[in-house]
Amino acid sequence: MAIKLYGAVVSTNTLRVMACLAEKDLHYEFINIDLSNKEHKSPGFLSRNPFGQVPAFEDGDLKLFVAFDDENTDVKKPLKKNEITLPIIMAIKLYGAVVSTNTLRVMACLAEKDLHYEFINIDLSNKEHKSPGFLSRNPFGQVPAFEDGDLKLFGTKIIIHINLLVNAKRLFDARPHVSAWAAEILSRPAWVKASSA
């Protein structure tokens, strides 16, 4: 039986799952859930994800879905047979300089979202951001930079993709280095396949 992915094309979480499936070269059927018509709250969708959140993933009788914990809710919905929840745990690595205001802003955002990360300090005075080791992970040497598991700079891909869709392309094109950086990030075959679906 084919893998089915239930999600919304406007959902960044759905886009991440699509990119992961494309990265692993797994074929799937995409079923669009219309959030504006509250299809994610319909009994049919709630049978796939009792929390009413997209995306939901189905492979035969196996159902996978992400369950976001709400700190203000004590109600835990029981899982049925063959249902698995996946906690959102990413091994985020943040490469940055403690003297950089951009790095401090990113650290504050991660703390606000209660996302755990490993901080790797990049010493700008020693030009560590220009070292071959750092440039192999981050060819443009910008600080701060992220890695999240196998999909390094994944959050950045989604942000750039959304910005290009909302007519910010001229801002990227006006800056050759930024344009090259965005093109390199978005050229990964799995990302092209997922974002064009």
TrEMBL record:
Residue intervals of the GST N-terminal domain: 1-96, 90-171
GO BP: glutathione metabolic process
Catalytic reaction equation(s): RX + glutathione = an S-substituted glutathione + a halide anion + H(+)
Entry's Gene Ontology molecular function annotations: glutathione binding; glutathione transferase activity
Origin superkingdom: Eukaryota
Enzyme class: transferase
EC number per UniProt: 2.5.1.18
Record's keyword terms, sorted: Transferase
One GO cellular component term noted in the UniProt record for this chain: cytoplasm
SUPFAM superfamilies: Thioredoxin-like
KW Glycoprotein (keyword) present: no
InterPro entries to which the protein is assigned, alphabetical: Glutathione_S-Trfase_N, Thioredoxin-like_sf
Family membership: Belongs to the GST superfamily. Phi family.
Protein name per the record: glutathione transferase
Originating species: Ambrosia artemisiifolia (Common ragweed)
